Each structure stands twice: as C-alpha cells, then as structure tokens.
Amino acid sequence: MTTASQIKLKPGVVTGKDYQAMVQAAKDGGYTIPAVNIVGTNSINAVLEAARKNKSDVIIQLSNGGAEFFAGKGFPDSFQAKVLGAVSAAQHVHLMAQHYGVCVVLHTDHANKKLVPWVEALLEHGERFYRENGRPLFTSHMLDLSEEPLEENLAECARILKRAAATDVSIEIELGITGGEEDGIGSEDDDLDNPNLYTQPEDVLKAYELLSPLGHFSVAASFGNVHGVYAPGNVKLRPEILKNSQELVQVRHNTSPNPLNLVFHGGSGSEQAKIDEAMRYGVFKMNIDTDLQFAFAHGVGKFVMENPKAFQYQIDPETHTPYKKLYDPRKWLRLGEEGMVARLDEAFTNLKSAGKSLAS
Question: How far apart are the C-alpha atoms of 123 and 63, rounded to whole Å?
Fold first, then answer.
C-alpha cells in the first residue's frame, strides 16, 4: 500500500510515473483529489491558492470551451483558440505551480467524437514540449466517446492511448453517459432515469483488458452522475456499480483490490455519503465545476449589489465621490477568487485530501 507519507514529489505539474504514484496514493489513502475546470488565470490562481492553503494536491483541467475562453473569445479561429488556449493555460500552470509549492495534475476534459482532433492537436504540441523539456505538457487527456457504440469508443481510445503513452501521457475514458450538459457535451434535457447513466461492469472489464497493456488510463464510469445541480432526490447515484466493476476485474485478472482508477464526474451537489462510498471503491478524482462557478459569481455579484453605483458611474452624480477603487477589476475579481477558495476548502475537507499533498 502506498501512502502520502511515503511519497514525496517536486512541486509543479506531475506527469508519468509520478502521476501514477499520486493516483495510487489517493486510492490507498482513502482520499480523492478534486478536479477543477478553469477558464482563465483568475480561476487557475484561486485553485493553486486553495491547494497551498489546504496542503493538498489538485487537478486543474480545461474543457474545450474553457480553453477557447482562455485564448480570448475574439480569437479569429475557434479551433486554434481551443488548442492554443489550452497550451497557454498549461504553460501558466507549469510556471506558477512550482512556486505555489503544490503538485498539480494538468488535464483536458470531455472531448467527444468531433473534438478528437482537438486532443490530437494537443498531443502534437505535447510531443514537441516533450522533445524540448523531457516531460509532458499535459498529464492526461479525456476522450468522452460514451455516445458512440462501445466497440468504437474503446477502439478509438486505444488508438489515442498508444500515441499518448509514448510521451508518458495518460488518458481518461468515459463508459456510460454523464447526464446534463457541460460546454456543449451532453444536454440539460437528459432524462435522469436514462439507463445509459449506469455503466455495466462487463463494459468496464472490456476496457481494462484492451487498454491496460497499452498505457495508463482512468475510467469515468457512470453511476447516475449528472453535470450541474438538481433538486434533492432527482439524481440517483449508485456507487455499487463501481464496486461491482472493481470486483469483476479483480476476480478475472487476479489483481489487488480496486485495480481500476475511477473518476467521479458531476460531483457538484452530491450527497456526502455517496461521495464517501465512491471513494471506498477506488475513485481518486472528482470533478467540481458548477459549485465553483457559482462560488466565483456569488462573490462578485454580492459586491456589485452592495455597490451598484460603482458599476454605473465613475463619479457619483450626487456626491461627486470617485468609484475607481470599487470598479477596479482587481477588486471584484479577487472576491470571485476568494469565493472559489472558500468552496475548495470544503471540497478538500469532504474528499479527505487536505493535508495529504505529496509535494516535498
């Protein structure tokens, strides 16, 4: 069994064997690493600040939309914005994470069939980075081909994993569908009773048998997960699906317990008891996006409502008071960052990763 106290890693972006050690330490230690979708330097810096404060490792990830936003919505080529925005964000994290003194996993999120070229373009940039620096640009990339037939999903994942593994990059795959919508992937109108929200353990076994000889990978196996936040009782999580998947692989291949590296998508608003149960079944990563978007917006919105004139006038029309110190973006953007940090304080505690950083 590998524990956080036995492993020490250099602060910064963690890749290759170090990433695999981090994943195993989380599984063995009974904790989960929060994965945060970012859209700019404000959200990156808030995540790094929270990780340092909580002495926890963290996963920073970009969706295609987040990457495009990072490059700037005015960028003339949408596809290149998705690619270069992701590369730019990665370079920012590589530079800053080591100085914050935390270990960070760099990941791209949800790439469906039409976004496979985006992943391939990032692999090309990563291969160049690897030749120049001897380490990967990204730790891992996600392929979300859950809407395609299983055989097509797995075959394409195998093709990408062969290429990724050559430069010590992992992949994350999705089996079964995570409900809701995130950056154009999925739909907010998904039927929450859809049987596709529940992955079959036999499908996970097929993925393990095909992919494990090729390289390192993780599995987002659906057990009722839904992106977004819904009224209590609407989302029916069934973590026993994860347990059954782990046990099937263990029995068929005579492995140690929890051989699969599992990912919990749609984590915002989940019941703590279900989170705890999922962690027992080898979930090392949980995505948190919606709650953090709200935390950032709430901090900004509260300030705007408390100081409405500062966002209408440079100078008060009645008292002639200047409002520069209030409408200065550094003032209200910082409040958004502080909102994210506070919400991440909860996440690190709930996922039991606080104080477990491998950074030495």
Answer: 15
Q: What is the pLDDT along the chain (360 residues), one digit of tens a residue?
A: 655 557 899 999 999 999 999 999 999 999 999 999 999 999 999 999 999 999 999 999 999 999 999 999 999 999 999 999 999 999 999 999 999 999 999 999 989 999 999 999 999 999 999 999 999 999 999 999 989 999 999 999 999 999 999 999 999 999 976 544 444 445 444 444 444 567 888 999 999 999 999 999 999 988 776 655 444 454 577 888 899 999 999 999 999 999 999 998 875 567 788 889 989 999 999 999 999 999 999 999 999 999 999 999 999 999 999 999 999 999 999 999 999 999 999 999 999 999 999 999
List the catalytic residues. Answer: 109
Which residues fall within 8 angstroms of residue 154, CB to CB, at 6 or more apart?
173, 206, 207, 210, 211
- Beta-bridge partners for 13: 104
Closest CA to 265 of 245, 237, 243, 240: 237
pTM: 0.90
Q: State how far the Cα of 172 lies from the Cα of 262, in Å rounded to an integer.
A: 9
According to CATH, the topology of domain 4-297 is TIM Barrel (3.20.20)
Distance CA 128, CA 125 (A): 5
Query: What is the helix (H) or strand (E) element at residue 13, kind and residue range?
Result: strand 12-13
Q: Please work out, in degrees rounded to the nearest 5, the angle formed at the alpha carbon of residue 307 by the alpha carbons of 306 and 311.
A: 135
The CB-side HSE value for 86 (13 A sphere, CA atoms) comes to 30
Q: Report residue 126: phi and psi, to 5°.
A: -65, -35
How far apart CA 10 and CA 93 sit, in angstroms, is: 14
Q: Are residues 137 and 125 in contact, defined by beta-carbon separation less than 8 angstroms?
A: yes
β-pair type (180-182, 185-187): antiparallel
The pair of three-digit structure tokens given for residue 346, joined into one six-digit string: 């909860």
Work out whether strand 170-175 and strand 58-62 pair parallel, antiparallel, or are unpaired.
unpaired
